[in-house]
Every structure is written in C-alpha cells, then in structure tokens.
Amino acid sequence: MGIKGEKTKQLICRAAYGLFAKKGYKDVTMQDICMETGLSRGGLYRHYESTGQIFQEIITYLMASQEDEFAGKMQAKVPAAMILEEVLFRYEEEMMDSGSSLSLAIYEFFSNPPAAGCSHSIMQQYLASKKMWVGLIEYGIGTGEFRAVEPEAVFDVIVFSYQGVRMYSRLMPVDRAIPRRITGQIKEMLIGAHGKKEEI
C-alpha cells in the first residue's frame, strides 16, 4: 500500500477512535465513519471490511505503541523509575479523560462473537499488556530501583485499577484524587515511601 493509502487508513482510525470513545463499539456503523471522514462507502471499504476490523487495528496499534515505548526506553537504559513515572502520569490523565476512553467499546467488542478476520480475545490483550509490564518491573528490580515484588500481582493492580476508573468515569464524575491515590500506591509498591527504595 502506498503513502496515500496509509494516510487514509490513519484518517479512518483517528475518526473511528473518536466515535468509539463517544458511542461505544456497537453503536458505531461504517456509515458513521464515512460521515466523519468524508469518505464514500467504496473508499472506506477499500481499506476495511467492518467496524470490527477497524477497532481491532486501533487496539493492536495502541498496544504495540506502548510495548515499543517500554522496550525502546529499557534498551536505551532509561531508569525504570523514570519510565514508571512517565507512564503513570499519562495514566492519571487518561483516567480523568472520559471522552477519550475506549473502555465501554472494548467491553462491547470483546463481549460479542468475533467478526471474520478479527483476532477477538480480551485474554490476548491482557497477556500482551502483562508481558510488557512484567518486563518493565523485572527491569526495575534488576537495576535495583524497584522492590523485589511479584511482577504479575503488581500488573494486575495496575491494569484493573486503570480500566476500572476509566469505566466508572463514563458513569459518574471521578475526582482527580482517585487516579493520584492509585498511582501513588503503585509507586509505593514498587519504589517505597516517598519515591525511595526501602533500605534492606
């Protein structure tokens, strides 16, 4: 596919992301995406066969972007505590931004039978995210920045807290103190009181 085709796909995914965040997954149609992008039905179907295919590509891209970010920073020997701080700050902002949350769309998408051509398992997304986070936590333990924690347990706290707040933020106002308390506890688990590793 040429540069023009790739730019069109990016346009489609950006527009679809906004629609999925606003309406959830099941209420977004290919016609909605045509209207949002200004593409004809033929122009849209030239790139994607269904909303499921578009949504799957968005999720795959988001996961790959974060995985590449973690891997690139660890390879560059960026301190684990710095990577953690940057990611948790971003998570705080995302937890407060209900308008960009895909949590409802993710629930709806993975609750339905898979569409043709879609890799349709929330467990696959969970395992990919776990691999990424466990790698960072083990990296931090190896550098001596993080406590000798159980990486998978810390990951579960991170993923379920994050997704839980994002889901609740669609249903009720969420005070900024809530994501701050959550990220503070995650840092406490990994680094210790006041951001310093406990003396052994």
Automatic annotation (TrEMBL):
DNA-binding region residue numbers: 29-48
Pfam families per record: TetR_N
Occurrences of domain HTH tetR-type (ranges): 6-66
Gene3D superfamilies: Homeodomain-like, Tetracycline Repressor, domain 2
SUPFAM superfamilies tied to this protein: Homeodomain-like, Tetracyclin repressor-like, C-terminal domain
InterPro entries found in the cross-reference section: Homeodomain-like_sf, HTH_TetR, Tet_transcr_reg_TetR-rel_C_sf
Superkingdom per UniProt: Bacteria
Name of this protein: TetR/AcrR family transcriptional regulator
